[in-house]
Amino acid sequence: MGGDGQQVGRPLLQMPRFGHPWQGSAPEQREKRREEMAEDFVHEMGEPLSPARERLFARWQPGQSQRYHDAYEAWLKSGEFEVEFKRDGNVYYHPELVIGRGAHATVFLGIVPSDGREVAVKVHSDSQGNGGDHFVKEVQAMKKNAAVPGVIQYITSFEKERIFEEQGRRKRRREERLQVVILELMEGTLQQAMSRWGDLVAGEHIDTICYVSRSLLDIVKQLNPNIIHRDIKPDNIMIDCRGNIKLSDFGISRMLTAGQDRLYTSAEGSSLPFTPPEALRSKLHKTSDLYSVGRVMLAMMLSDATMRRMGDSSLEDLVPVSWPAHSRHAFIQLVRALTHQDEEDRGYLDRLKDPKFLYEVIQSHPFFWSQRRNLSFLTSLGNYYSNCQNRPPEWDRVVWALETAIANACEKQGMNRDGWKAIACDLEQDESRRRKIEGAKWNAELLRFFRNKVLHEPELGPGLLQRLPAISVFCWEALLCELTTKGFPFHEFFGVSEACEL
Predict the structure, then answer these.
(1) Residue of 273, 217, 284 lying closest to 245 (CA atoms)
(2) Which terms are listed as keywords in the entry (predicted)?
(3) Spatial contact of 348 and 489, defined as CB atoms under 8 Å apart
(4) Is the distance from CB of 153 to CB of 122 less than 8 angstroms?
């Protein structure tokens, strides 16, 4: 479900609105709206706009944020643009417009007077002397990865000192160092979106999990070589006004040197439900972020960012029964691979002879496939099996891997290792073909049967997939060890670029 085409909209990622924001996009509509706002301001305040406010109204671009539109409008009308909350004219922000708080910083709504951009102003207060390192590391990581599309756009950063007097029995002068990062404005976090999920329709639920997961995998893949984010969790996964997924908070990220797979660190990692087991032993591995992505997938499946609903239940018991059966089996296999306790085996890394294809392979996983893609995959395998005569000896290994995969898939569904035969006979009308199925020596004959039904009786394909839902993902996993087999049609089966074919 959901992995093969672009979705126009994803309601599950929409943030709660503040009133009814104006959403006109044409330049003439924006200009008209700004003029109306300016007139309303003059009427309400009984005084003309100052030149500075007039310029800000003229430059502000309504519609950049749907969620915070009304807050911006009210703020611009208030005229509260104190010098304390800007630096060299770069940005204004207001102390009452708080949109987020974290362990190290508070985030405010902001606006850039030079071009009217709506921004987020992240202020690290270092009065206790414990947030400086986090600020420096986050800025360095964001600058380094500024070109990665899925990383929140870094605009600028600066430091300033604030001096004030504390009132009490004895007045005393106190200094506070503020460290400020200006970022593109997001509508909210995945955690906020999930908090609004109620009863979910299966297709919409799976589509959202696919979209967010593939976005995260693509971001992690594109990060500067060997950067480990270390803090991937729903609260650090951001959603912009167009529904794009972006990653924030690089304050505890680490970098592996060239050729390095792991490192030791004493720094704390992500929140416990999303922390890989090796991090608890003060270790990091190049697959550590994959573990966190897998746990985020679990949280989305549960609609619970805290993961409390997980309890001691098995994954099979937790995946909604309303999901299509092939999606359920694929989800379970992918999440288990991503959250493998052994970092060397995580994400199918142990099965790949060339680890540089790791992310591309994961992104081609059957969980991200539609029903049609599943049927196409099994049809291609049927063609491959039918054409295996007179092939090089190493191709026999591929067939044997598929033979074992089909037997394992049948057992996973609670059948005998050749349990597919009863299902195939039930669907086959021709008596002679039924006898041939019953006498089949190899389980891989199922692939030929699948191909024939999809090509000649396509209406039976979806029903066959529903009755043998684990076949696709188990066969896909069986082929992973054969990616470097000479002449193996990797791109045909995995749906990714031919550049991976060796």
Answers:
(1) 217
(2) ATP-binding, Kinase, Nucleotide-binding, Receptor, Transferase
(3) no
(4) no
Which residues line the annotated binding site for ATP? Answer: 122
Write phi, then psi, for 264 (nearest 5 degrees).
-105, 140
Best CA proximity match to 218, nearest among 247, 254, 249, 258: 247
Neighbours of 431 (CB within 10 A): 9
- Residue identified by tokens 């270092």 is 126
Tell me: the pLDDT tens digits for 358-414? 998 899 999 999 999 999 999 989 988 888 766 655 567 888 889 999 999 999 999
In Å, what is the CA distance from 92 to each residue of 4, 101, 116? 42, 18, 10
**Residue 361 backbone dihedrals phi, psi, to 5 degrees:** -65, -45
Find the helix packing angle between 471-479 and 394-412, rounded to 10°. 150
DSSP string spanning 224-283? STTEE----SGGGEEE-TT--EEE---TT-EEPPTT--EEE--S--S-GGG--GGGGGTE
Contact 246, 256 (CB under 8 A): no
Distances (CA, A) of 147 to 143, 162, 220, 430, 463: 8, 33, 13, 60, 45
Q: What is the pLDDT of residues 146-163, one digit of tens each?
A: 778 889 988 888 887 765
Enumerate the β-bridge partners of residue 101. 106
Count other C-beta atoms under 10 Å from residue 81's C-beta.
19
Annotated binding-site ranges: 122
User: How many other C-beta atoms are found inside a 10 Å radius of the C-beta of residue 387?
Assistant: 10
Closest residue by Cα to residue 118 from 62, 78, 180, 181: 62
pTM: 0.85
